[in-house]
Amino acid sequence: MTGSGRIIGPSKLSVAIYDTPRVVGERLSKALTQAGYDVLFDGNLTKETAYREADVWLIKWTYGLGDYGFLKDAHPRLGIISATNGVDHINRQALAELNLRAENCPTFSSIPVAEHAIGLALRSVHGECALPPLSGSVVVFSEYSDIYAEQAVAQMLMRSRQINSSIERARGCRYRDNDDRRPSEPWINSELAGARIGIIGHDREAFEIARILKEGFDCDLYGYDISEALAGYYRVKPESYLRIIEYSDYIFLCTSRYGPTSGPWTFDTRQLTKSEELSLGGSDVAVLGTGAIGSIIARICKKGFNCNVRAFNRSRKPELAGIVEYVDPKAPISVPISDSNFTFVSLPLNEGTSNLITAQQMSELILGRKRILVNVTRDKIVESDAVFDFVSRGALLAYATDVVPNDALLCKGGPPDETTQKFLQHSFVIPTPHEGECSRNALERLVDEVLIKLNNFMM
Q1: Global confidence as pTM
Q2: How far is CA 134 from the centre of its chain?
Q3: Which of 237, 271, 305 is the C-terminal boundary of a domain?
Q4: pLDDT digits (tens, 9 = 90+) for 431-455
Q5: Rounded to 5 degrees, what are φ and ψ at 389?
């Protein structure tokens, strides 16, 4: 279904869809209709458009539901599914009084958000993306050798996340499109996880790129004329030259004997320069929150980039043994941040994490260490004025964030306030407009997760 309307079919439940990017609304409407649900609406949720006879509201960017009065006046019969990681934007008191069930979709976006966080960190130290757009063909890194491994991965992640365009949208406050919806463009993003990687030749080493992509991102590696050691150690599958050219997403050309050396799809790796200030590989990393997103970030940093990873979390995950060193959750948050070059904020927003990083904690940091702070969850976890002060004084090399201060207002189409504006305009702030969750794979996982949640309402 496209736009407003009603589809009648063999109904299990009636579902009203609100406040989604057009591509997301259309994909969900199609899947739910095919599954036999009665799809009632696809547009913006207001008191006038609220379909009270719907069994379930399926929402994505509806912030008005934080208003107690809104839900008391207009609500579905059974409950609400938020096609996001959390339900902190839905008024809990109203849910309880109305006996409404609230479900979220916590896992569909874990991979793209984690990759977005790593991409933002790498963008902070390696500059802009120089690769062709995602609409282009396979990218070949010619003249490749492992001295360019981190820079190459930085370029791949910035391309798959469309970081250049994303930063432009954030700085221009283009959080909504001409249809007054969140934009659909980011949903064509790809994921590096599972990407098909070709390695051709053995004249120059490719062990480090193989480790980063296999151990860090679980890519599928294929090789032609590679060394036996590379094939054995990183499980690089032997493949013909023509099939690698045809089926790979990226190719690393480690020889001059095969393949193109120029062309629209070929990138001379020697153009990549190494940051003199900082690199992710082998650095000290703090991960604040080891839920689904934080766990992926930790694994990428440790297994892919060989980082020393410390984690802050209320509980310890046994599956992260050997990957992270947990700090005492009662210790000040300044402890893991102070010991790290890169700090990733991947905590949910709740009473315990609101304003977790304050001016006091920032003032306790040991000066002299080069630091980058990356936040991909909620803006209110950090105290904006404190972070801005540290960025402005150079105590932080960069604040890279998918959640600029008060971005909920921007997502609703409102103008930026003074605090937001100064973040967006600062050259050491790397902002993106709350797009970390977006990718083609994530959209398909979202469909599956929503169908499971709807089925729960029938049990």
Answers
A1: 0.94
A2: 17
A3: 271
A4: 999 999 999 999 999 999 999 999 8
A5: -60, -45
